[in-house]
Amino acid sequence: MIQRKVGSSIKSNTSCLSSLLLFRRNSHSRIRGYESNGQVVEKKKQHDGLFLQKSKGQHLLTNTRILDAIVRSSDVRPTDTVLEIGPGTGNLTMKLLEAAQHVVAVELDKRMVEILRARVSDHALQHKLTIIQKDVLKTDFPEFDLVVANIPYNISSPLVAKLVYGSNTFRTATLLLQKEFSRRLLANPGDSDFNRLAVNVKLLADVKFVMDVSKREFVPPPKVDSSVVMITPKEVKPDVDVREWLAFTRTCFGKKNKTLGSMFRQKKKVMELLSLSEAGITTNASDVVEEEGDNRVLCLDTDASVFKERVIGILKSNGFEDKRPSKLSHGELLRLLSLFNQAAIFFHSLPMDLHDY
């Protein structure tokens, strides 16, 4: 029987100016700064203003009670190094510096970095902060114990994937995300909004709801509310080829409510899998095994109709033909993928990137 190894282990793969959260010019040529307690503080104008870019997900959380609640729920320990992504002007950063031993903040916006450095220096906490001014999706993280962050909405999916499927090990990630995105992340098999994002993240981690946060608590306010969730990596992870799993779930959840039998009878899908399987066997010739003891030799089918019969046969004989991906547990999906791979049916060919998760 032709086999392919699918057991590659997954690597766990400020000064007064800077305390301002938003600057506005009024009729007296002064700057108005809205602090977290809602009081309005006037400062002399020092520049034309800090313009926050909604397109880049720049929404500053301003409610002190919520900031405190996020830090408490994260269970930050005095010995922890915390990774913060998108610190902005440092509202959450200042809270984390009080609770943790060290904070590593990744921020791309130079203006935010300057304000953050000044604010932290004003409180004599610069020795506890490392700032990385780079694109977080293109940055190799140093070692850290946990993540606490207000994630920019426009990079939520690839960033969660980088954390969960990356090589850094960590205790938890407490993330402030768009509410709709959080609900998708929390969905379970059988839920109407169960999706590929949830099935991929929950393969390696548990996701827990913490609290909702109104859009009114941000400056500028986004169009939608947010939620805080906590992601905890699983101690025991399944022994599966990550690339193969991600390609498999992409296939299954493309039309998650169709039956698997209907999905894999489509000519386009059959030809795609046939091509991928041919490539898989050709590039992994050392993994081909012929089981002479049982006189069973599985040959590569170059005929699409024969290949299709093999695919449907696997579904029928194992009770998957009439099942829908959106209803399947991780255990069932892993079993089906293993059955396909054992029959030399593969789902991936090219390297994956963060947007494929």
UniProtKB/TrEMBL annotation:
Protein EC: 2.1.1.-
Listed GO MF terms: RNA binding; rRNA (adenine-N6,N6-)-dimethyltransferase activity
Catalytic EC class: transferase
Keywords: Methyltransferase, RNA-binding, rRNA processing, S-adenosyl-L-methionine, Transferase
Record has Methyltransferase as a keyword: yes
Ribosomal RNA adenine methylase transferase N-terminal domain segment(s): 66-235
Keyword Nucleus: no
Gene Ontology cellular-component annotations: mitochondrion
Protein name, entry field: rRNA adenine N(6)-methyltransferase
Organism per entry: Brassica carinata
